[in-house]
Amino acid sequence: MFTFALVALALALLAAVFAFGREIRLRRALEKLLHILLSRWRTHAAQSSSQKPDPDPATRNERL
């Protein structure tokens, strides 16, 4: 009975370590994907804002 409990505990520990490793890999992959998406979004937003004139004259830095 003691051997069975020891084997079950070892398998549970192995499963927990395996799941934790997969979670870390998944988290890193999601962080990388988020970084790529945000950098592309920022680049696109910067390019779009520099190409279009400001439609609100109140926000321009021109003197009347």
Brief synopsis:
The chain is built from 1 helix and no strands.
Describe this structure in words.
This protein is an all-alpha fold. It has a domain at 23-48. Helices cover 78% and strands 0% of the residues. The protein contains one helix and no strands. The chain has one helix spanning 2-51.
Map the helices and strands.
Blueprint: H1 2-51
Biggest sheet: strands, sense, closure? none
Decide which structural class fits the backbone: mainly alpha
Helix content: over 70%
Q: What percentage of the residues does DSSP assign to strands (E)?
A: under 5%
Strands, total number:
0
Name the average pLDDT. Answer: 83
Helix/strand order: H
Task: Give unreliable regions as ranges.
Answer: none
How large is the radius of gyration? Answer: 27 Å
Distinct helical segment count: 1
The gross shape turns out to be rod-shaped
The first-to-last residue Cα distance is: 90 Å
Describe the structure using short key phrases.
64 residues
